[in-house]
Amino acid sequence: MDKQKLKTIAKAAAIIIIIMAFCFVLRAHAADISIIPDDMKATYQDSDGLPYFSEMDSYYNLRMTQDYLDHGYFGDTQVNGTTVDMHRSSPDGVNTTFDPMISWVTVGLYNVANMFHSMSLKEVAFWAGAIVSCLAAIPAYTIVRRVTNDYGAATAAIMVTLAPNYFSHTFAGFFDTDMFNVTLPLFIFLFFIESIRSDNPKLRIIYSILTVLTVAIFSISWVGYTFYAALLVLMAIVYYVLAYLLKMDVIESVKNYDSKFQWFINQRMLCSIIVIMVIGIIGVTLISGIDSVSSTISGLLSLLSLQSAGGGTAVSGFPNVFISVAEMQIPTLLTGGISGAFLANSQSVVNGIGGIVALFAALATLYLYTSRLWKLRLVSTSIEKHTGKPSKSKRKSAAQKKDENNRFNLAIKDLTSLGGSDDVNKDKRLTLLYFTVLMVWTISCIVAVTQGTRFIMTLMIPLGLCVGIFVGYAADYIKAKVEDERRLFLICLICSFLVSFPVVEQVNFLSGIILFVVLVIVSAIAVYGGKFFKESDISLKKTAAVLLITLALISPTVCGAYQTASQVVPGASDPMWNSMQYINGTANNTISSDAVIESWWDYGYLFEIAANKQTASDGGVQSGDRAFWMGRAMTTSNLDLSKGILQMLATTGTKAGETLNSYNGNNSSQSTDILLHTLALPKSDAKNMMMNNYSLTSAQADNVLQYSHPDNPKDVVFVASSDMLQKAGWWTYFGTWNFAEQNSTSLQYMVSTTTANITPGHSGTIPLLDENGISFNAVINRGANGTNNTTGQVQAVFDNNNTTVEVNNTTYNPLKASNLMVIEDNYLTKNESIHGATDGNYTLFVLGNNNTYNAILIDNKLVDSMFTRLFLLGGNGQNQFQLIHMDSGISLWKVNNNASSTSSTNLTNSTG
Question: Does the model's pTM come out above 0.85?
Answer without folding.
Answer: yes
